[in-house]
Amino acid sequence: MTEKGAASIRNIAEEPWQQFPGHFGGALSKALVHPETTGSKQLDYRISTYQPMAYVERHVHKVQEQIYHVLDGEGLMDIGEERRVVRKHDVIFLPPGTWHAIQNTGLGPLTFIVVTTPLKDG
User: Fold this and answer.
1) Contact 55/76 with Cβ under 8 angstroms?
2) Under 8 Å CB-to-CB from 7, ≥6 apart: which residues?
3) Fewer CB within 10 Å, N side or C side of the chain?
4) pLDDT tens digits, the chain, 122 residues: what are they?
5) What is the 3-state secondary structure (H, E, C) of the chain?
6) How far is CA 79 from CA 17, 34, 36, 83, 109, in A?
7) Which pLDDT does position 70 carry in this prediction?
8) Where in the sequence is the signal peptide annotated (predicted)?
9) Global pTM?
10) Residue 5: what pLDDT?
11) What is the end-to-end Cα distance of the chain in Å, rounded?
12) In the Cβ-directed half-sphere of 72, how many Cα atoms lie within 13 Å?
């Protein structure tokens, strides 16, 4: 087992799926790089898979930046007052202060990577 805060290599199968607060209907994530899994101090790196109709509620981050990279499936993403279809190979950048939400409106799982930095909102 790797010491937290040290360099590490982990396999995705080592981290359990979990449903974080504000995520509903089978919106599951694996916290692959996170203070609790690796001891990271600046990054939260997750893979998420949302079943059809699953979603994260609309929310905003005061100081955090986020990147969503859609790996498979399709859904709808709210960014501010705009709603857009997102699908495989879309990369979404969200600066601080941007209200956003994502939901799976497709027929199969919506799978994506989420990178957040810094770890906490101010």
Assistant:
1) no
2) none
3) N
4) 567 778 999 999 999 999 999 999 999 999 999 998 899 999 999 999 999 999 999 999 999 999 999 999 999 999 999 999 999 999 999 999 999 999 999 999 999 999 999 988 87
5) CCCCCCCCCCCHHHCCCECCCCEECCEEEEEEECCCCCCCCCCEEEEEEECCCCEEEEECCCCCEEEEEEEECEEEEEECCEEEEEECCCEEEECCCCCEEEECCCCCCEEEEEEEECCCCC
6) 26, 25, 29, 6, 21
7) 98
8) none
9) 0.93
10) 78
11) 32
12) 10
The tokens describing 67, both together, are 């990147």
How far from the centroid of its chain's Cα atoms is residue 15's Cα?
A: 15
Check if the beta carbon of residue 8 is closer than 8 Å to that of residue 24: no
